[in-house]
Amino acid sequence: MLNAARLHIVGRRVLQAIPVVVLSTFIVFGLLKLVPGDVAVTLAGDNASDQRIAEIRELYGLNQPFLLQYGSWLAKAVQGDLSNSLVSNEAVLTSIQRCLPHTLLIVTLALLTALLIGVPLGIAAATKPGSWIDSVVMAIASLGVAVPNFWLGMLLVAFFSLQLNWLPATGAVAFTKDPWASLSHAILPAVALASGGIAEVARQLRSSLVEILSSQQVRTLHAKGLPPSSILWRHGLKNVSVNLLTVISLLANRMLAATVVVEAVFAIPGMGGLIVNAAMHRDFPVVQGVVFTMVLIVVSLNLLTDILYSVLDPRIAA
């Protein structure tokens, strides 16, 4: 349960998040207005009359001052109304509800993959510093950072999809419609997205654990005859849990951004594809709605991280 100190942290973080949301959406809104060309002319068509163009500006509020346009959009956005697509006239919220689950599934699987592989590698390297195991783990970590997601994704498709025919190469299926098909489509994109995360988790965990395990406190525990496994789990991993949580939080945020490339490689109709397609067609409401949604997700992840900080280390909530 959340005590008074943790509730204070949550309340403070929520108040701090409000300017972040407003500023980020304001900047994107302003940058979209700097894109060359007239949206009204694009919507009206090449041979449209001046009267028709003026009607479209009036219809979409494009003739209003910039601050008034942004204020009107923000007021509707906080009520769940993200306007409609200028191209398809579909509600932006509907498009996001259709695409967001695909992106979240890939990011969740990628994060789990990074932890399931990166944590054991980091522990193995930290418990044998300077050994061949340490060298192999650090080499794997360096390779994971160096290999681009899109290149690894194409290799995975060529081998596991085209050569072995084990997993689908492209596309996505809604999890609520067919969970197994949804997971099978998400495995390869998740692995491609997780490569850098595996390396980051392994390197950061190894560095933190080596520092803890070589401390005077741990040497004293060894002298008292405590089993190495007990020292590792009760003292080593417990002391690096906050650092590991920070790495996980940063990874989740970076993976959300990196899905733009991965979704393009695997032709996944997620948030990355949605915003790229909207930007190409100058569909400003969709771009702004996607940015607003992603900012809310990142802010929520940061808020959850702050709460977990106080759980893992009560001194933070003091």
Question: Outline of this structure?
Answer:
This protein has 318 residues and is mainly alpha-helical. It has helices at residues 4-33, 39-44, 50-60, 66-77, 92-127, 132-146, 149-163, 179-213, 216-223, 228-266, 271-280, 284-312.
Report on the structure:
This protein has helices at residues 4-33, 39-44, 50-60, 66-77, 92-127, 132-146, 149-163, 179-213, 216-223, 228-266, 271-280, 284-312. The mean pLDDT is 81. The longest helix is centred in the C-terminal third of the chain and has 39 residues, at 228-266. Helix 1 (4-33) packs antiparallel against helix 12 (284-312) and helix 10 (228-266) runs parallel beside helix 11. The chain is 77% helix and 0% strand. It has a domain at 92-280: MetI-like (MetI-like fold, Orthogonal Bundle). It is mainly alpha-helical. The two termini are 15 Å apart.
Descriptors:
318 residues, mainly alpha, MetI-like fold, 12 helices, 0% strand, MetI-like, cell membrane
What radius of gyration results from the CA coordinates?
Answer: 24 Å
The number of distinct β-strands equals 0
Order of helices and strands: HHHHHHHHHHHH
Distance between the ends: 15 Å
Helical stretch count?
Answer: 12
Class per helix and strand makeup: mainly alpha
Tell me the helix content.
over 70%
The proportion of strand residues reads: under 5%
The CATH superfamily of one domain appears as MetI-like
CATH fold call of one domain? MetI-like fold
User: Which CATH architecture of one domain would you pick?
Assistant: Orthogonal Bundle
Mean pLDDT: 81
Keywords: Cell membrane, Membrane, Transmembrane, Transmembrane helix, Transport
Protein name: Binding-protein-dependent transport systems inner membrane component
Subcellular location: Cell membrane
InterPro entries: BPD_transp_1_N, MetI-like, MetI-like_sf
